[in-house]
Task: structure prediction
Amino acid sequence: MSLIPDAAPEFEDEEPKTWWDFANCLGVEPDLFFPERGASTKEAKEVCRGCIVRDDCLEYALVQGEKFGIWGGMSERERRRLRRQRALARRAAAGE
Ligand code: SF4
Result:
């Protein structure tokens, strides 16, 4: 007899959830997150503000090197700045 219960049949085919499944922007018009150059990012950032996977989303964009759009509540420019700050911090920590 095993102490590990058999998997409930109704969950066998269920895909494991990822951070994306909990995104606040699911069902929101994607164009909102990829505004034209110079257009407002305010509405997209407002959606991101209440998103529980904001940190995951931002890290994903940073790791993937996403160059366009709003990810994790940050614009391309803001992500570039954050990447530079992190690189400087890493160099400082390494004593370079
Ligand atoms: S942080 Fe913004 S772009 Fe990222 S998943 Fe959440 S709502 Fe979507």
